[in-house]
Queue: 2 jobs
Job 1
Amino acid sequence: MSVKDLVDRYCRVDKLPHIWCPGCGNGIIMGAVIRALDKTDFDQDKTVIVSGIGCSSRAPGYMNFDTLHTTHGRALAYATGVKFARPDLNVVVLTGDGDCSAIGGNHLIHAARRNIDLTVVVFNNSIYGMTGGQFSPLTPAHSYASTAPYGSIDRNFDLCKLVQAAGGTYVARSTAYHARQLVNLIATGLNHKGFAFIEVVTQCPMYYGRRNKFPSPVDMLKWQQEHAVPVKAAAKLSPEQMAGKFLIGELHREEAPEYTAVYETDVIAKARGDIN
Amino acid sequence: MAAKTKCKAQLLSGNEACVQGALVAGIRFFAGYPITPSTEVAEGLAEELPKIGGRFIQMEDEIASMGAVIGASLAGLKSMTATSGPGFSLKQENIGFAAMTEVPCVVVNVQRYGPSTGLPTSPAQGDIMQARWGTHGDHPVVALMPASVRETFDLTVEAVNLAEELRTPVIILLDEVVGHMRERVELPAAEDVELFNRVKPTESPDTFLPYKPAANLVPPMPAYGDGYRFHATGLVHDETGFPCGKGADGNTLVRRLQAKVEQRQPKIARAETFQTEDAEIVIVAAGSVARSARAAVKEARAQGIKLGLVRPITAWPFPEEAIDSVAQTAKALIVAEMNLGQMILEVERIAAGRAPVFGLNRIDAELITPEDIIVRAQEVTNNVR
């Protein structure tokens, strides 16, 4: 499908242009989500896009689906309600690094633990952009933010490891630079029956880049290109060679019972006396 | 009217009656988090909902429970949560979201002693103002205050109906005494209970405006998956449902939210009156305290004191007419409540000096007794003579 056709079909064209700053990676990620949805067989009318609060969480407003722009950090709690109430709906969560790993961190680990069939795409731009550039739990340690004028001393999360440890059954990472890979990873996550989590390293030139010696958005994309290492390539590298770099690609996949399905086959069946 | 089938008598607690009311009213989704003294509501629905294909989920915290309830309601199910004091505080942000996005839901708050952890199994009525103003910004609220096990059943049904009709969160303000006490009740058969289901749009998705109100100021509500592809946001939005960033739209929206409940105040707000016609002193008391007040009225009259009772059944909207009426006829009003004076503020506002208003407040974790009320009535009698 041509870009125009994709936009006409999947975007609320009258809501464009979007509010994101020039050079922001959010549009690339929203585009990847749309392309991934187009690659799957889900019915557009049976797909619900849920978000929290922040720059990334404005994306659903531009997307032509049932959409839910919730409170800060709570997208996964609302999405759990939608999915558990209507397991036939395809539920996608778009969230940011602050939304999902700070204020929403508890919901993230518990949604992963339940292995409920949600697809979560985290727009990780290393900063709270909407509020003007404060550090988040994913801001690399020692980088600068409006609330870390002397450099952040907080250690940053590896969110993919966290989600895998919590029980997420599909975990992947990509970047705004690796846009084609990103589409495929999201599409695989959408088709995965269970909790699918895709972290996307992206750029905020306005609030992260300016403070951290990235003169332009292109420099930030180059940084992504140079520091992201595909899983296969990483296997051949020493820990020294991997220092300061991060993995991209499919990091974890397993088959495990999905929450809403188990509720049917186990809880409802037992409550009705169909099984002991 | 169809012949009414009466069910056999049962011994139920208020919390158990709330479960029964929820099931009959069509609640098919419950999300909650354990907290005393409301936990029996969650336990009862954990057992019963799966039997009828309904959904029960224990979430990771109170905030998540409220979020899940709103998500499930948007997906089309009648949804409810139950909590108590500290949990009610935690739910407030998402209650505001439900008010703003007009998502029907019911929040049961079995009030307990506060602030903070307080006395978890001890009664209080300290959340009357939190129920009204707990979330930030102007918003509509409906809150109901049952005083008996049977009334807990009835008001749970009514709470679900009002939430569906008005598209707004409805709070059931139980107190620990009503939640935990057991009474013999005969509940009506499910087929005799009148239910209200949210109004769905009849327009095609092409022309439908999700936040365009009908004549009753409530917009019809599709469910996710119905093909309407609508947007719900806590941002100020116009009739399309999308944020506009304009103060004028906020003005239109928030005034309508307020008005859709306010204009039904005469229908929703109500109080029970007991021996107020000739009463010189009228007690205003709700929930479990009203039970003591009723006993006090009988006892005081035996002693020659003309006492009466107004029992607000709705905390919000407050039953103004009942207070207005006794403010004109009584020599004084006494507001008896297990807090340091919350409902009294509404009574004073409505009485507006026509009758002096006195408080009777206990916060020692004990129920206000009939004796407390009679002693206070005697003091007040001497005071206003």
Job 2
Amino acid sequence: MDSKNNIGTQIKSRLEHLSASPDASVWENIEKELKKKRRKRVIFFWWLSSGSVLTVALVTALFYGYSTSKNIHQEKTQDVKKTILQKNNTEDNTDLNEELITSSKSEEQQKSSAPIKVNLLGPSKNKTSSKAINESRNTENTSTIAKETNNTSSPTKESVTQQNNKTELEEELSIEVSDVTSNEETKKLKEIDEKQKDSTENKDKSRWSVTPQGLLSYYGTLKESSSNNTSYNYGFLASYKMNSQFYARTGIRLLNLNQDINGISREVTYYQFPIEIKYVPFQHKINPYAVGGFSYYSLRDSKTNVSNQDFQATVGLNAGLGAEVKLWKKTFVNFESIFNYQLMPFSQKSDIKPYILNLSLGIEYRF
Amino acid sequence: MDIDKLIKRCKKQKLDAQSQLYQLYKDDLFILCLKYCRNKEEAQDNLQDTFLEIFQKIKNYKGTGSFEGWMKRITINKAIDKYKGKREINFEINDNILNGTEITIENIETIPLEEILTQVQNLPSQYRLVFTMYELDNYSHKEIAGLLNISESTSKSNLHRAKKLLQTKIPRPTKAS
């Protein structure tokens, strides 16, 4: 057998000279697939990052909200205690003054009619009863009587004794008042708590909300002048109320954007995934608010006259102002103006620094 | 750029490096695909899938052995996977009479390369794979049997049938004993 004539050997030797190249579309398809995979990785990364940030923000806000409400409750409790104590002190002092006046009057009467009775309320009795208020009052009475009966005693001594007795009396009174009022105080605190509870129950407890919105988008550039920039778009937001003033929100917007720069027409379609914090300082029927955060842009489609501009998925920073107007109990109308700056819209270096200015009108329903 | 640096950058999923690697090896791997596939379109599809797998698995390439050999194995395995995915008729022919016969052909130098390639591509898929693996890429029947999930004797008979078909299809065939 002639191995040179073996069909396999001959074909092999002939095909070694074969030269061929694949079409350019093969690399284009490969490149597209590679970018798609990269985009998926970026999406995963950003969602992971934003999820972590949101979790931290949520936990912080909840902790902040909890500690604030706790402090407010403690402050209120202390204020109430103070008020009650002051009130009781005032009342008791008034009573005491009245009693003192009355007892002084009675003493005068006793002095004039029965001096022996006065002796029975002498200092010895005062010594044996140190805590009882009535006895203290008797001490006061006694000192008053002593002042009146014993004219030989010096005025300084009398005043010192009176002052000492008065101080003791006040201390004892405050102790007793606090003891006596503790029950009342508890009752009042309970009443306050119940009132607070009632007022809270009357407030809107909605934590979540959904907002479909329509947008007027202006796709501009910071360095270059552009034209034909406006387009109408739409989106959907979901938000969570972290506390009375802060909301975390996310959603999706479909942005069909267009702009002409120096005769170059660009049309891009992005899915925008905003992750934002909304701050509402007031709780009225019309509430202004501020929004800040970032967005992930996933490129859906791009058409451009320039072949070397290669758009890809990117992220952007968002900041804006808005106002919400209460329509019904749980329905609000939102007006917003949000500025979005795209950080890296192109895979290649470009002088075009695009931004998106969105004016939106949304209907928010809370639940 | 040095091939090792290129591989390193490809491991970091750098698009420019991936593009360079593609430009460097696209023709060799495309010719390989042409031999294993039925036509140009199928070969291009196979090349596309091959490169995507190369870029995905390049991080597993340890640098031991030839990089080209590693890429060629991926290319051939990809073609085999496609064949397995749409396996046509299982040509389980086990006629030992055929195995002992040498199929020869005389002077195919004058026959255009495209014509020869077309005849190889027109072989039934399993014949084509066995013929190409054995005759053009030096696989053993044992290796072919393992890769195609067939017996060695089937591989041998498939090879014989493939040659026989080529002999009849390619102009001016001669048969010698």
